[in-house]
Amino acid sequence: MQFSEEQITRYSRHILLPEVGGKGQKKIAQAKVFIVGAGGLGSPAAMYLAAAGVGTIGIIDHDTVDRSNLQRQVLHHTPDIGQAKVQSAKEKIGLINPEVVVETYQDRLNAHNALDRIRPYDVVIDGVDNFPAKFLINDACCFAGKPLIHGGILRFEGRVFSILPGQSACYRCIFSHPPPSGLVPSCQEAGIIGVVAGIIGTIQATEALKLILGIGDLLTDRILDFDARKTVFREIRTQRNPKCPLCGTHPVITTLAEQEQESCQLQPPGTVGVS
């Protein structure tokens, strides 16, 4: 693969980095990243991955742009209200970097389509806003052997960690099942300061680029927790659970299934985060 003069100029700040260089930029250009959700987390992740020159970005989201989304979902603008989020996302990515191939799926990720959607991609970013979908994404990535980058936000807080199936703790190693419905407030009830979505989504994009390039220390077996009120990051160590129902020594989850539970927030300690 040979870069044109325009591409060399576009990616010059990457190419100058010894850890990236021309070879690394080629890896980025050949990579495929799948983003589940074109909302608060998926927006900044998609924008920075597109700017970085990721060759193919897949985005799945069934929803349309609502006025209340604009406070944090920076892929979407006021004229996009009522438009399908995946279409709005594709248009903005094209403006950022027309070289990026954008595959869109105006649909929900479910037990029937998850493996087919995920398999063509190298890395998966979890930007969904409900617990059942997060467990489904985790399980599908485990079955498909695809790296997964989890993110979750609520109020002034956010969390992010990466999962390498078969190597590091998966989502179920840490949180075995969704919390009971009603245990935690919805995002509409609790609120979210928009910039936290940008911070966590950008870290997710950073993790994806590190995975593609094979550099640095990934957020595996550790959760990065952010509190915007104090501007403090803390690290929570985790480890694979040999009794994990999905990736443990004696797994009991062997097929994809969806669990009935609706929620939209970062869970308190002992539960889990979403966008």
Structure description:
- It is a single chain.
- The protein has helices spanning 5-10, 12-15, 21-30, 42-52, 85-96, 114-118, 131-144, 171-174, 187-190, 194-213; strands at residues 32-36, 56-60, 101-105, 123-126, 148-154, 157-163, 222-227, 232-237.
- The protein has one domain (10-237): 3-Layer(aba) Sandwich (Rossmann fold).
- With 275 residues, the chain is α/β, with parallel strands linked by helices.
What is the CA-based Rg, rounded?
18 Å
The tally of structural domains comes to 1
Compute the number of strand runs: 8
Looking at how many chains there are and whether they match, the oligomeric state comes to single chain
Spatial strand order of the main sheet = 3-2-1-4-5-6-7-8
Distance between the termini: 37 Å
- The mean pLDDT is 92
CATH architecture: 3-Layer(aba) Sandwich
Determine the CATH superfamily: NAD(P)-binding Rossmann-like Domain
Rough outline: globular
Structural class by sheet pairing and helices: alpha/beta
Order of helices and strands: HHHEHEHEHEHEEHHHEE
- Major beta sheet summary: 8 strands, mixed
